[in-house]
Design a protein that fits this description.
Elements lengths: L2 E7 L3 H11 L7 E8 L3 E8 L2 H7 L10 E7 L14 E2 L5 E6 L5 H10 L9 H16 L2 H11 L4 E7 L6 E6 L4 E4 L3 E5 L11 E4 L5 E4 L4 E4 L5 E2 L4 E2 L15 H7 L1 H9 L3 E2 L2 E2 L8 H5 L3 E6 L1 H18 L3 E5 H4 L10 E7 L5 H12 L3 E6 L5 H5 L2 E4 L12 H21 L4 H22 L2 H11 L4 E6 L2 H17 L2 E6 L16 E6 L5 H13 L3 E7 L3 H7 L2 E5 L7 H19 L18
Parallel strand pairs: 18-19, 18-20, 20-21, 21-22, 23-24, 23-25, 25-26, 26-27
Antiparallel strand pairs: 1-4, 1-10, 2-3, 2-4, 5-6, 6-7, 7-8, 8-12, 9-10, 9-11, 11-15, 12-13, 13-14, 16-17
Helix pairs in contact: 3-4, 4-5, 7-13, 7-14, 9-13, 9-16, 13-14, 14-19, 15-19, 16-19
The structure holds fructose -6-phosphate (F6R).
Length: about 600
């Protein structure tokens, strides 16, 4: 989604802003812009619809805009179509104030009408321009920028991260946040603001996470942070341990492929510090055994692929914990008057830690007394900071919009948590506990071996990429895994695809199977393999072409019936989806490649969905 960067320093700002925006391209955007202030020229603003390259060409890589203070933005349209005018920064009517904004101002229409009654003229359709104009209005009253910002924040409702510069203030930019991430970065050549740490990691790892309601004044020498009453605050600094190279392609054609290949290492990083002397050790969680014993119900709440992780966990956790586990889409849960109380454990899964619906669902659960445990990848993100407990997946930065390594690390972390809770509850046999842990230790190696055969999947992709509609079928954990396989395929290749629990086929979907329809049949779940085979026979009898995914154990049987078979290593059943999903990711990748799609930045999608 939208990205913000700001710089106040001792170097030319524009190239830094453009570079920071480029590093946030993965978040998804449809237009971009920068504003730079210089003594000679005052505020200079350049905006352009489309790829960042257009903006870069327009400004000769930033060389045309002189000045060491500036803000930049990549926009993902919400209010008003993507075009040059609606792109940020927005400038107030007298041209003195420029502002970039992430989030949504809910009462913007009312404010706009009020300002129009005072004769203010608007140029864009955006809610963000309203804030720029309101700032000018208050600044004209009080002649103090910080005071004007305070007045505006008291007036607006909704979510925001702002970066603001004013031509009367040659050295300072102002930042403010509520429900939208914003980070302050302390660099050698100046200081930064950014909505995403990847934008500034090249320049600094020394950061401060802004909290809701805070305002910061950033100059080349200093950053002052205030609370909403303008009281100065002492903020805790954090060190970002992500490496710059982790956010670069490093010779791979696409981030998605690189991230698929990084999975063994990412899974190892997530697992190994948490398994010690044959036990799961979750040092970071404060759940007591007594609390866990009183849990009557568990909710798992998430969106998209993170929700699919929840679907996998429902099957494995109910098996391990013998407690009801309900998986809800965050966007549904938050408005469902949910039945949660202090005996409900709510697990929130979010790669970015910023997904608005997931955040709102978590707040809803907390307000009803539930304890929340968040599984998050981005350290210091909003969900991570608000949850009662947080466990990080150590996947490193994930740049491709379609998640891969964040998904698999979520899966294995959920397996660990499930095992940990089952142990506290006494619902898992020691032999089963030991068997799962032993298999977890060798999972990264099995994944690595599996990835060595990526070319097999490439071959199948070249055989099937022309299909226009593809079905994924499976039972139990295979069904949950199929949901993710299907999403991966449709989001990056734009092929229509659906995932079904195989047993449901006969209740409607089978009418869509006709000669030549491609069915991806998932048969890795040993306990129901024979049933999975029956469904393969069933769709074959109706003319379907079947691409199967199965384990070494069932390879021979499957090969007799399916048209094509991909084989993954055997492991403990609850870990099987972590291996089974890998060829599905590769299949989606190669199909999209064959179809010439923009793999890392699929149309209409954003990496971090910070609006409803
Ligand atoms: C799909 C994908 C999305 C995210 C969803 C939730 O590849 O990445 O479906 O899983 O937008 O995002 P997070 O996990 O950041 O809350």
């Amino acid at each position: 989604m939208c990205g913000i960067i700001g710089f106040a320093g001792r170097e030319q700002a524009a190239p830094i802003l453009l570079d920071g925006l480029a590093r946030m391209e993965y978040r998804g955007y449809d237009s971009a812009g920068i504003a730079v202030r210089s003594e000679a020229k005052g505020l200079q603003v350049k905006k352009a619809k489309g790829r960042l390259q257009v903006l870069s060409d327009l400004t000769h890589g930033g060389a045309d805009l002189e000045g060491t203070l500036g803000i930049g933005h990549t926009r993902w349209a919400t209010h008003g179509e993507p075009n040059d005018i609606n792109a940020h920064p927005h400038v107030s009517e007298n041209g003195r104030i420029a502002l970039v904004h992430n989030g949504i101002i809910e009462n913007y229409l009312e404010i706009k009408e009020q300002l129009q009654r005072h004769g203010v003229k608007f140029t864009s359709d955006t809610d963000s321009e309203v804030v720029a104009q309101l700032l000018e209005f208050h600044y004209n009253e009080c002649h103090n920028m910080l005071e004007a910002v305070g007045r505006v924040l008291r007036r607006i409702q909704g979510s925001y991260a702002f970066g603001i510069i004013c031509s009367d203030y040659p050295n300072a930019l102002i930042a403010a946040r509520k429900d939208s991430p914003l980070i302050l970065g302390y660099g050698e050549n100046g200081n930064y603001i950014a909505s995403d740490v990847t934008a500034i990691i090249k320049h600094t790892r020394d950061v401060v996470y802004m909290e809701d309601g805070e305002i910061a004044v950033v100059t080349a020498e200093n950053i002052d942070v205030f609370d909403s009453e303008m009281n100065p605050l002492e903020k805790k600094h954090s060190q970002v341990d992500w490496d710059v190279s982790a956010a670069e392609k490093g010779g791979y054609a696409h981030f998605m492929f690189k991230e698929i290949m990084e999975q063994p290492e990412a899974v190892r990083k997530t697992l190994s510090p948490r398994v010690r002397d044959g036990r799961v050790v979750l040092d970071d969680v404060k759940l007591t055994a007594e609390y866990v014993k009183n849990i009557s119900r568990i909710f798992i709440i998430a969106c998209g692929s993170s929700y699919h992780v929840g679907m996998v966990s429902k099957y494995s956790w109910e098996r391990l914990l013998r407690r009801p586990v309900q998986v809800d889409l965050a966007s549904e849960f938050r408005y469902s008057d949910p039945l949660v109380d202090e005996n409900t454990l709510v697990i929130v899964i979010s790669q970015s830690g910023e997904t608005l619906d997931t955040m709102a669902a978590m707040r809803e659960a907390k307000s009803r007394g539930a304890r929340t445990l968040a599984v998050v990848n981005v350290v210091g993100s909003s969900i991570a900071r608000e949850a009662d407990d947080v466990l990080y997946t150590w996947a490193g930065p994930e740049i491709a919009v379609a998640t891969t390594k964040a998904y698999t690390t979520q899966l294995v972390l959920m397996d660990l948590i499930g095992l940990y809770l089952a142990d506290l509850l006494g619902t898992v046999e020691k032999s089963e506990y030991d068997a799962i842990l032993a298999e977890m230790q060798v999972l990264p190696e099995k994944m690595r071996r599996l990835l060595e055969h990526f070319e097999d999947v490439q071959y199948f992709a070249s055989r099937y990429f022309n299909h226009n509609s593809i079905f994924f079928i499976g039972r139990n954990l295979d069904y949950a895994m199929g949901l993710e396989g299907s999403l991966k395929l449709k989001e990056i290749s734009y092929i229509h695809s659906e995932a079904y629990a195989s047993g449901e086929l006969k209740h409607g979907t089978i009418s869509l199977i006709e000669p030549g329809t491609l069915v991806v049949a998932l048969g890795t779940y040993a306990a129901l393999f024979d049933k999975a085979m029956s469904n393969v026979v069933e769709v074959k009898a109706r003319g379907a072409e079947v691409l199967a995914v199965t384990t070494e154990t069932f390879k021979e049987k499957m090969e007799k019936t399916a048209d094509s078979t991909i084989v993954v290593p055997d492991t403990h059943p609850i870990l099987q989806p972590s291996l089974g999903v890998v060829p599905l990711q590769l299949f989606a990748y190669y199909v999209a490649l064959q179809r010439g799609c923009d793999i890392d930045k699929p149309r209409n999608l954003a990496k971090s969905v910070t609006v409803e």
